[in-house]
Specification:
The protein is mainly beta. The protein has a domain of about 100 residues: Agglutinin, subunit A. Helices cover about 10% and strands about 40% of the residues. The chain is built from one helix and 15 strands. The strands form four sheets. The protein has a four-stranded antiparallel beta sheet, with no helix packed on it. Strands 2-7-8-9 form a four-stranded antiparallel beta sheet, with no helix packed on it. A four-stranded antiparallel beta sheet has the order 3-4-5-6, with no helix packed on it. The longest helix has 18 residues.
């Protein structure tokens, strides 16, 4: 089997594992966070507050928000199939968006273990709140843990996938 064929097989296996797992730190395409619901990773929490503000907390400290405080009621944050994360108010009125619209597909919004909130599908938007020197995303399913750590090379930044 050639290395290309092995790579394709590994990619298909990874896709099967990742597509069937669920995590408390991932918002999948067409899923939403409603008032009081959160994505969590350790002490980090991305919360759709009942006051319509989407807020990222580190412990009890707010480190980022959508700035939509008291702009509606019945608000929710939805990960759309066009790659855009949108905070909607009553009557489905868009209050805030990442403005990352792309072609229709499967996207995920991930609260990473470095505190950064990132939309993947490929990565389209990040909150910019990650801490320097921490690993990126970790996805666990069954008895397998996958870690994706960002690496930066002079001309081509990449994502390295590590299997534990």
């Amino acid at each position: 089997m050639s290395s290309l064929q092995l790579s394709l097989v590994a990619l298909l296996i990874s896709w099967a594992v990742f597509s069937s797992c669920s995590a408390e730190n991932i918002l999948y395409t067409n899923d939403a966070l409603y008032g009081g619901q959160s994505l969590t990773w350790g002490n980090y929490r991305l919360t759709m507050q009942t006051d319509c503000n989407l807020v990222l907390y580190d412990g009890g400290n707010a480190v980022w928000s959508s700035g939509t405080y008291n702009q509606g009621s019945g608000c929710y944050a939805k990960m759309q199939s066009d790659g855009n994360l949108v905070v909607y108010g009553g009557y489905n009125n868009a209050l805030w968006a990442t403005n990352t619209e792309r072609e229709q597909g499967n996207y995920i919004c991930v609260l990473q273990r470095d505190r950064n909130v990132v939309i993947y599908g490929p990565a389209l938007w990040a909150s910019g709140t990650n801490r320097v020197g921490t690993p990126g995303v970790v996805i666990s399913a069954a008895n397998s843990t996958q870690t994706a750590a960002a690496t930066t090379e002079s001309k081509s930044p990449s994502i390295a996938m590590v299997t534990n």
